UniProtKB/TrEMBL annotation:
Top-rank taxon: Bacteria
Name of protein: Predicted PurR-regulated permease PerM
Protein localization: Membrane
The entry's keywords: Membrane, Transmembrane, Transmembrane helix
GO CC terms in record: membrane
Family according to the record: Belongs to the autoinducer-2 exporter (AI-2E) (TC 2.A.86) family.
Annotated transmembrane regions: 12-31, 37-56, 68-90, 145-165, 200-221, 227-248, 260-278, 298-331
Bilayer topology: Multi-pass membrane protein
Record has Nucleotide-binding as a keyword: no
Length: 358
């Protein structure tokens, strides 16, 4: 005998969707800071998949060996250097936050040249501590301990391993459970690839070149600790519009405030003529090969993404905006199709011709 229920079939269907959304929300809430591991795995999957496809699908190499090699490559070439740069930057910012005397010397020089006192040591110390507090919520290695950071890296590599090892099942599951047509899925896939290529591969190349040029320029014109400022330039290069001038600009002002006019002007000339133009040149060259993303999308996406996802927001923020634009286009296209179909469906069928008398 079937059991009775107080819900109609439609209500049961709606409640099922509510339960699914609620459980998914609880899972995401429970993962918390570990969500960056899955986002990082997705980014690395897009970056490394062309190599995986060339070796496994085209040359029929062993899937497990190729996956292990790609994981080792990602650790040695991508994760370890980037982690080292982040730790170097964070440690130096903490040092400046604890000892503000170097910053105060620079500010006093500027005040002497301008004749205007605009800060005190307490204000500088408070500002530096606020910067460290802000970074602690944006950079995982600063916000968490060594164990937490190791767990994030391990979970990311573990996820990436199974994404490659069970690639067919993974892609089949995406096509099955994502509520989009095949054409929409292809557009989203292209948008993901273009965004990752432009904001990871392309921007990383541009940032590395600009950081090296900034380091050499500062070293050439006698700026102390040029390696640290070059490292900082690598991260500021990801910020659209502002970029590396946030580093070599204050360095030039500092040299001018010290009375070293030749060095200050030299830094400005190299920065404006070489470093900025190499950014524009590389961006034009790489845009055709690695995905052309509008600068406004990148700028707004970086602001949005860093606030939500920390350091991975450099990629995830522009990706969210790109997906929004793609889905709006899909919505507009579907509405146009429906508008063309409705008049045809509402049009009355023609009456059959009268039968001829026999």
């Amino acid at each position: 005998m079937p059991s009775e229920t107080i819900y109609t079939p439609r209500q049961q269907y709606v409640l099922l969707i509510v339960c699914l959304v609620g459980l998914a929300g609880l899972i995401l809430l429970g993962l918390g800071s570990y969500i960056t591991a899955f986002l990082g795995a997705a980014v690395l999957y897009v970056v490394l998949r062309p190599w995986f496809a060339a070796l496994v699908h085209h040359r029929a190499w062993n899937r497990q060996l190729v996956t292990a090699g790609l994981l080792l490559f990602s650790v040695v070439v991508i994760i370890m250097p980037f982690t080292g740069l982040v730790l170097m930057l964070v440690n130096r910012i903490r040092l400046y936050a604890q000892d503000t005397r170097p910053i105060m010397r620079v500010l006093h020089l500027v005040e002497q040249k301008t004749g205007y006192q605009f800060t005190t040591e307490n204000n500088v110390r408070d500002l530096a501590q606020q910067v460290v507090a802000w970074l602690s919520t944006r950079i995982p290695s600063l916000a968490s301990g060594l164990l937490h950071f190791t767990v994030i890296i391990g979970l990311m590599l573990f996820t990436l391993y199974f994404m490659f090892l069970q690639e067919e099942a993974f892609l089949r599951g995406l096509r099955r459970y994502l509520p989009f047509r095949d054409s929409t899925l292809q557009e989203l896939s292209d948008s993901l690839r273009n965004t990752v290529n432009a904001n990871v591969l392309g921007q990383a190349i541009i940032a590395l070149v600009q950081a090296l040029l900034t380091t050499l320029t500062l070293q050439l014109f006698g700026v102390e600790d040029a390696l640290f400022w070059g490292t900082l330039a690598f991260f500021t290069a990801f910020i659209p519009v502002l970029g590396t001038p946030l580093v070599w600009g204050p360095a030039a002002i500092f040299k001018l405030a010290q009375g070293h006019v030749g060095q200050g002007v030299g830094i400005l000339l190299v920065g404006v003529i070489v470093i900025i133009n190499i950014d524009n040149l590389l961006r034009i060259v790489l845009a055709k090969r690695m995905g052309d993303i509008h600068p406004l999308i990148t700028l707004a996406g970086v602001v949005l993404g860093v606030e939500l996802f920390g350091i991975l927001g450099l990629v995830m923020g522009p990706l969210l905006l790109s997906y929004l634009i793609v889905l709006v286009g899909v919505f507009e296209r579907e509405n146009r199709i429906r508008k063309r179909i409705r008049p045809q469906a509402a049009r009355p069928l023609p009456e059959p011709p009268p039968r001829q008398p026999e």
